Amino acid sequence: MEQRIFFPHKLFLGCLCLGGSVFDASSSTRFYLSLNLTKSCWVFADAIEMDKEAKKEAFRKYLESSGVLDGLTKVLVALYEQNDKPSSAVEFIQQTLGGPTVLEHERLHAEMSDLQTKYNELRIAHERTCQELEQLRNLQPMAASKETMDAEIPKDGL
After folding, report:
1. pTM of this prediction?
2. How far is CA 92 from the centre of its chain?
3. In this predicted model, what pLDDT tens digit does every residue of 33-57 receive, in sequence order?
4. What is an example of a GO molecular function annotated in this UniProt entry (predicted)?
């Protein structure tokens, strides 16, 4: 007994098992399947929703065990307890967590740019020096062979 099933919404993320075959219904807004009702098993969207919740819970536990939640809670409490609220809450959080201020960030970025320029200049100078060294090495064997030839030829003409 076959029946045609219509999945009207692309957010349906269920799967249908037919004799070992799995069809994913998440890729299309209109997804039709021929279904043999005697050999079918459904994995409903509820199971997928539970999987999402399990992932969220695992991530929450990870944040808690690594101390992130405690750190963020302390920073937010410190922000709440400020009598004079800062103009930028994000900047306050960055400073409290130990990050650079906007001015420090700009200064560090400018310094990095200067250092990159110096690095490029030094790399070019290094390449030139290596080329000069290679040229000198190539000239040295030629000079040594010339000296050898001069030594083999007698100077008195005999």
Report:
1. 0.39
2. 27
3. 444 444 444 555 566 777 888 999 9
4. transcription coactivator activity
